[in-house]
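Format notes (please read before filing issues)

Several people have asked whether sequences and structure tokens are stored in separate files. They are not. Every record keeps both together, in the order shown below: the sequence lines, then the token lines. Line labels are part of the format and must not be stripped during preprocessing.
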Amino acid sequence: MEPLKLKAAFQNYIWGGTKLREEFGKNSDLERIAESWELSCHSSGLATVMNGVNKGITLKAYLEQDWAARVGEGAARFSAFPVLIKLIDACQDLSVQVHPDDAYAREHENGENGKTECWYIVDCEEGAALAYGFNRELTKEEFRASIQNGTLLDYVQLVPVHKGDVFFIEAGTLHAIGAGILIAEIQQSSNLTYRVYDYDRVDDNGFPRELHIDKAVDVTKTWSAPPRRRRPMTEFEGYSTAVIADCPSFTTTELRITEEAVFSASEGVSYTHLLCLEGDAALIYDEGVVMPVKKGDSIFLPANFGAFRLRSQNCTLLMTQTLPRA
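Then the structure lines:
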């Protein structure tokens, strides 16, 4: 058994830039790479395996060959793989938007999942900010009126960001990534977005992008949302960690490796996904086999993989799993 290096699926939304190609080595024929879907079994963008005997097949197909053993106890309780992980390069402001929760999505969107997500600020330009909830509590009527009369941005909470900041975006939270921000997004596997404001932009064909005002008003929590910043790192010999998100669909830990980190096998509990954000490392497994890991690499380890080590002098990764719940 070997770690799987994944090839992302790419999206070329109108607000995207070039940093994922220039700084993370992502190869695509698209003019813009707005998003790279690094860990994805979603039909809108399937990640594929780049190495080994499974080279060329989708991650979804690989997991379906032996579902319970490969995803683990935590994810096997879901009907489909529950997580989607992206890198997002916002060259322009994204639309102001909101995502529904599972109950609303399943009732109104043909059984689709809702979307709770976590943003990790990988990098940002000086002065960059994002929209996160409201700057005061609104009624639903005030929210709808602000959309219709063009005053919504007067009530949106803008939060300056810095490299390493973390924001947990629960379903129902109004939000928007601002220009000049590059993030790693860990989210439920869903592609549902309700746009409420898009700066009067048009798409590549000259048409305004669709807004979803009625549904957005239905699902949006119209109170202010305080930012959630990075939790303190816990220091160990050779590495440090911080859990940055923990919810039923995913648990994500920031790892900073300065020497070596050893991870014991909890066989059958969960897959492990590693996304390298900075530096490089050696992933060591099976009594000494080494896989080089560099910035931008996306690595999947099935739940029955076993113990492994990460060795580096300076590397930052996000480790994501889906853990069992009582």
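For reference, the curators noted about this record: The two ends are 30 Å apart (CA to CA). The mean pLDDT is 95.
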